[in-house]
Hints:
By secondary structure, the chain is of the alpha+beta class. The chain is 22% helix and 23% strand.
Amino acid sequence: MAERSTAAVDVADNGGDQPPAAGAAKATADGAETQNGRAADKPVPEEKDGEHRTAVPAAAPELHSGHKLARRYRLEECVTRLDGFSSWRAVDEKLRRAVGVHLLPADHPRARSVLAAARSSALLGDPRFVQVLDAVEENDLVYVVHEWLPDATELTSLLATGPLEPHEAYQLVSQVSQAMAAAHREGLSHLRLTPGAILRTSTGQYRIRGLAVNAALRGITSDTPQRTDTEAIGALLYASLTQRWPYENDAYGLTGLPKDVGLIPPDQVRAGVHRGLGQLAMRALANDGATASRQEPPCTTPEELAKAVAAMPRIRPPEPAFTAPPEYQHTTYQQGSYGRPPTHPGTPAAQVIVAPPPPLQSRAGRVLKWAVSALLITALGLGSWQLADTLLDHGKGDSGNGGSQQTAPTGEPPKVRHPKQLKVGSASVFGREQIEKEDVHKAVDGDRSTGWVTNHFKGQPNFGNLPSYEDGSGVIVDLGSVQEVTKLEADMYLAGHKAQVRAAAADASSPVSLSDFPQELTKLQNTGKTLETKLDAPVKTRFLLVHITELPSEGGVYRGGIDEIRVMGLVD
């Protein structure tokens, strides 16, 4: 099947003529980028693997800070001005949030392709990509609005401090390859997967910016887009393991490989590189003429690379480093110098011997000794009697219940954990075609009077039997961290849904497909107004899915949804 190559959003590139303000907000502006070690923003007639780009001498629109688009988006700072387009950090005054904006004249040769790429990328709706929020042609301008992630860090900045840990590099190649495989299934490609296009959020999730629009802005196309993106992922993994760019030229703040030696395995560049990840990088980079390690076949598509990552043994995160407590310091009082005369420097301290008090030898002293002895004997007798009585009581208790009750050695009963309602971190819409995703938070806001409701579908209860809804829909609940889940209740929009509850594996990071939720907590069933599941044993997971495959009938059409989701779990 022929591959369709389009190109996506979030492309701020500081290469070329860089404005003074371009150094700010690195988490949302590309660095000076090159493609496979070559300057990607310099016009060249033809790239390798059938990749082409066109040079455009047009000038970027002359705008300034404070200018408003659609009476809503206020431009704040220009981060790129290149090839007739410019990229800005802006503020959406309507929603009071930071956004990114790409601007170019409506008569720019690439304006039509940029609009088409932005709209195609927006339809994907995959949370692993920086989302396109708007794509407009207005007043002789074309502009694309996208998310701005101020708390994210570019891979360029991460690699500036050193190579990534094996677990972090494993997460990078796993998440990026899975995301790009999903994009290529929808006919979208990136063609500029560089360290500046990869962002790591504060939760450890990797987000990809520049799907389709990045290449469209620069006029980059490819005859083999899957091969181009796969090789780019291999280069990212190689750089993450070695802190070296796998080509001869320096790029993205990384030193290239020595000239005239070709592509050498990562473990020959840096000692201690994880062997499995190094071989995986070589298999992805084999597209550029390298020889795959152990004669394993090269990975030529993101799908093949994602499967190769999944087949690897799981790499666990490093154990936290143990810090030894500081050495115990004796105080002056504990050292026994309290009450001693001070010593002068250079003079050894004289040991003061305190004479013990004289023994009680008088008649009153002997009486006192006898009284103390009697009290001690009485106390010992009472203690022995209480101990024996306690042992007898324990023996009776054991004989009455068969010895099933036990107490801890400290005398305290074992701690019992009771199920409590867990706090939901966030929610997202499940399915390739996300329905009313802006309302999904209403399904976990604690208010049963509001909820997430689907569109109307005609003809069939299974979402009109449309191909884009063949996996159904539903709501993915993110608990924020792995919890021991014991129960889930979902108040449905109407009775008559066909639905079930599924859970992701405990080590899942960003599940989006049905195969990412392998644990069936309930069977697929017709529901009443409430879908409830009680588990015999707690399930450890972070992500839960209320999966809907068929909608109830409402006035001759089919419509459904979820008013509220509550999750119970064991809490210390």
